[in-house]
Amino acid sequence: MAVTLMILAGPVRAHAIEIKVSAQALERTLNTQLFNAADGRYYFRGSATSPCYAYAQEPKVSFKDERIVIHVKTHARLGTKLRGSCLGVGLNTEADVSVVPDAQGESIGFRDPNLDHLSESRELNFLLVPFLSKKLPQQMRINAADLIRQLLAKSAEATGYDVKLGNLKVHSMQVSGDALVVDFDGDLSVQ
């Protein structure tokens, strides 16, 4: 009874909360934020209607040691556009980049990209390297506070309690087994 009264009384200070983020959750983030074209691809050269193009698709996330590994399939038609066709070579390969999780205020971020596996083609790698080492890690960023606030937005309807998140600070992140473990502090208020 005393705990219920304390919860209903107002702000509650939460400390050392731990969230485990699965590889599938990170894949959904990538698909939502980066691989969001109608065909599930990310074009780093051309488009779905271009005769010459290069794109990545089907990101798969896994954990290895202390790193997060992102595996993508890449397809390219590189060459010169001539009369609506691409005169050049077609390439299909797979590539891997790994990153280290990095706490950044309210966000789950990533740093230190390591290109673990590239294609045999220098031309395709010229396009792949900026995508894998910059664009992909930047787009995996998740604002944990916004995500929790979205989850709590309908708390009054679901539970009868209006729960709101005030401040949130991510303290640390580490890969542990099959999850990214995120430790943070936050302030909750219950009305």
Number of domains: 2
Reported for the largest beta sheet, the result is: 6 strands, antiparallel
The helix fraction, in percent, is: 25-40%
Q: How are strands sequenced across the largest beta sheet? A: 2-3-4-5-6-7
Task: Please indicate the percent range of residues in DSSP E strands (runs of 2 or more).
Answer: over 45%
H/I helix tally = 5
How many DSSP E strands?
9
The pLDDT mean sits at 86
Distance between the termini: 16 Å
Unreliable sequence segments: 1-9
Derived from helix and strand composition plus strand pairing, the structural class reads alpha+beta
Write the element-wise H/E pattern from the N-terminal end onward.
HEHEEEEEHEHHEE
Radius of gyration: 21 Å
Question: Can you describe what's shown?
Answer:
By secondary structure, the chain is an alpha+beta fold. The chain folds into 2 domains: 64 residues, no CATH class; 120 residues, no CATH class. It is 27% helix and 54% strand. It has 5 helices and 9 strands; from the N terminus they run H-E-H-E-E-E-E-E-H-E-H-H-E-E. It has a 6-stranded antiparallel beta sheet. A 3-stranded antiparallel beta sheet has the order 1-9-8. A hairpin with a 2-residue loop joins strand 4 and strand 5.
Notable traits:
191 residues; 5 helices; elongated; alpha+beta; disordered N terminus; 3-stranded antiparallel beta sheet; 27% helix; 6-stranded antiparallel beta sheet; 2 domains
Write the layout of secondary structure elements.
Elements lengths: L1 H8 L1 E12 H11 L7 E5 L7 E12 L2 E16 L2 E20 L2 E11 L4 H18 L2 E2 H9 L2 H5 L3 E14 L2 E12 L1
Antiparallel strand pairs: 1-9, 2-3, 3-4, 4-5, 5-6, 6-7, 8-9
